């Protein structure tokens, strides 16, 4: 079993994710091999909150070019985590 801090890579701070916080939903970039159960346990362990639902999205890397060289940004996995009523993640509160 992976450590919880290896599963949760970083939070996503965008305008859309900030709007989802009003619905008690938080967005994170997670390890590509992590499943919903591992993500739920990692969030509960790190932030000491109760998770209601986990939705995951596989995001394909975008094509990038530098001069004549082409490549792709790496693929990643996002998780939208819905917390139970009354629970908040203090990391996001100041934003």
UniProtKB/TrEMBL annotation:
It comes from the Bacteria. GO terms for cellular component: ribonucleoprotein complex; ribosome. GO terms for molecular function: rRNA binding; structural constituent of ribosome. InterPro entries: Nucleotide-bd_a/b_plait_sf, Ribosomal_uL23-like, Ribosomal_uL23/eL15/eS24_sf, Ribosomal_uL23_CS. SUPFAM superfamilies: Ribosomal proteins S24e, L23 and L15e (SSF54189). GO terms for biological process: translation. Keywords: Ribonucleoprotein, Ribosomal protein, RNA-binding, rRNA-binding. One of the early assembly proteins it binds 23S rRNA. One of the proteins that surrounds the polypeptide exit tunnel on the outside of the ribosome. Forms the main docking site for trigger factor binding to the ribosome. Belongs to the universal ribosomal protein uL23 family. Part of the 50S ribosomal subunit. Contacts protein L29, and trigger factor when it is bound to the ribosome. This is Large ribosomal subunit protein uL23. The lineage of its organism: Bacteria, Bacillati, Bacillota, Clostridia, Eubacteriales. The gene is rplW.
């Amino acid at each position: 079993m992976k450590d919880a801090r290896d599963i949760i890579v970083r939070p996503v701070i965008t305008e859309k994710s900030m709007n989802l916080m009003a619905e008690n939903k938080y967005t994170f970039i997670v390890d590509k091999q992590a499943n919903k159960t591992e993500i739920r346990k990692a969030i509960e362990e790190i932030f000491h909150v109760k998770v209601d639902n986990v939705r995951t999205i596989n995001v394909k890397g975008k094509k990038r070019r530098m001069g004549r060289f082409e490549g792709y940004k790496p693929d990643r996995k996002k998780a939208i985590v819905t917390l139970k009523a009354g629970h908040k993640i203090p990391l996001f509160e100041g934003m």
